[in-house]
Write a structure and sequence with these properties.
Blueprint lengths: L1 H16 L2 H8 L2 H9 L4 H16 L3 H14 L6 H12 L7 E3 L6 E3 L6 H23 L2 H12 L7 H8 L4
Antiparallel strand pairs: 1-2
């Protein structure tokens, strides 16, 4: 299962960068090997969807890009931050000539000029996928879903770089 998503990541990285160096860097990265195959982290699935989203964004296939981004967000909420990078790329691009290329905040990624209105169906798909994925849970659990997030925030700490800051901001001294 994890191998499949690891292969998807490697393939998409090569398609994005057209560089064997980037592919090799990913393929022999000890952190990826240890966390995916020894630690059995689901993050590889999230990463595969995120990289596919970047690939389709680069190709201006926004519906598929936002579909894969929604899948990534459903696995790990933090990946929603890529929307900010997409927005920066599109705002920078606005007003540029069609034949010019615009670099995203990632090396090796470029998109061509287009109308921002082409993104509306893709954004609608993004919202619909997330809404429909959570609808069964909202219908059965209701507001308890958000209680569980608060419970998780209070009693679980992982990768706590920002955790103390969030506790301070929310007034949670425990």
């Amino acid at each position: 299962f994890y191998l499949l998503f690891d292969i998807i990541c490697a393939f998409a990285i090569y398609k994005l960068t057209h560089s064997l160096h980037h592919l090799l860097f990913y393929a022999i990265c000890p952190l990826v090997i240890v966390e995916v195959y020894i630690g059995m982290h689901i993050d590889i699935v999230c990463t595969a969807f995120l990289i596919l989203s970047l690939l389709f964004f680069k190709r201006r296939t926004y519906s598929l890009s936002f579909l894969f981004l929604a899948c990534s967000v459903l696995i790990k909420y933090i990946t929603i931050g890529i929307c900010i990078l997409y927005s920066i790329a599109l705002i920078r691009e606005k007003g540029k000539k069609t034949e010019q290329k615009l670099s995203l905040p990632f090396p090796g990624l470029y998109v061509r000029s287009h109308s921002l209105f082409r993104l509306l169906p893709a954004l609608g798909l993004f919202i619909a996928v997330i809404f429909l994925a959570y609808l069964p849970y909202w219908m059965t659990a209701g507001s308890l879903i958000f209680k569980q997030l608060i419970f998780y925030h209070q009693y679980w700490t992982f990768n706590s770089v920002l955790h103390p800051l969030l506790r301070y901001i929310t007034g949670d001294a425990s």
